[in-house]
Amino acid sequence: MLNTLGNSTDLAVAQVVPLERYWDGAGMKRTLHDSQCAVILGQPTLTLRPGGSLRLVGLYSRYANAMLLYGRNPVLEALQSGVVSEVLVARGVEESLVRQLKEFDVILRFAPRIELDQLAGTTQHQGVIAEVEDPQWATLDDILNHAEQKGEQLLIILLDGITDPRNFGAIIRSAEVLGAHGVVVEERRSAPLNATVAKAAAGATSYLPVAQTKNLPRLIDSLKQDGIWVYGAAGEAATDLHRLDYERKLALVIGAEGEGMRRLVREKCDELVSIAVRGQVQSLNASVAAGILIHHALSSRK
Known about the structure:
The chain is α/β, with parallel strands linked by helices. It has three domains: 9-58, no CATH class; 66-132, CATH 3.30.1330.30; 140-299, 3-Layer(aba) Sandwich (Alpha/beta knot). The chain is 31% helix and 24% strand. The chain has helices spanning 59-63, 72-81, 95-102, 113-120, 140-150, 165-178, 195-201, 216-225, 263-268, 286-299; strands spanning 9-11, 16-18, 21-23, 29-31, 38-40, 46-48, 54-56, 67-70, 84-90, 107-111, 128-132, 155-160, 182-186, 210-213, 229-233, 250-255, 271-273. Strands 14-13-12-16-15-17 form a six-stranded parallel β-sheet, sandwiched between helices. A four-stranded mixed β-sheet has the order 8-11-9-10, sandwiched between helices. A three-stranded antiparallel β-sheet has the order 1-6-7. Strand 9, helix 3 and strand 10 form a beta-alpha-beta unit. It is elongated. The chain starts with 8 loop residues before the first strand and ends with a helix.
């Protein structure tokens, strides 16, 4: 419960921070008795009621618990996959975009661009924000079935410590575009499957199974017992990616940027593989390395 001084006051502020004091609409400094509360800053405003709780109004009320995706390409990809419930459009965007959005069976709501800026937390939303269904975790069986339904040899991507959501999303995108059958992460050593990941994946989370495991080394043991070979990406490995056999059921392990794979994960791999570099910088971004390995593995298959 949040106590305030004076009458009910609407605030117009700009981001999310824990505050002990705030400025009210009349320019008076007020003190919150509960210093642990978080005040959400931005327009439309939120309302503080004496002796009551924090209440959101306007766009923040409608979208407070929603999974939001912004940017034209990610939104259009999500629309095509059927996971969008409605789209918020900035007033004044070009008619061609509006016509394109109207091709889908989805609610369009129009609002001032500044409200989209504040809802997205950036001005880089390109005039559209979509409310989408939360991405759902798949299972390992979903990944195995995905390969079987396509009639292809299995290729799974295992991520060890990829905690940056943009890297995580970019790897999901590359895996789906290039033809891998799924991605698996360890529960406690991964970025969450959230809107940032979905945006970086550009819609790929709707098509590619992404699963969690409680223990990645144990999962690797299980995969190997089922006849799946495991190759781990390691910059210092002596074996170049061109020297390995990809005509087999396969799991590729991508480690954390900078740290690489954990020792136990590394020891579980059947082979360690490197990507030859010729520049002064001796390492690749994790998502770029994943894309190169996935492409080479699949293009090497007949």
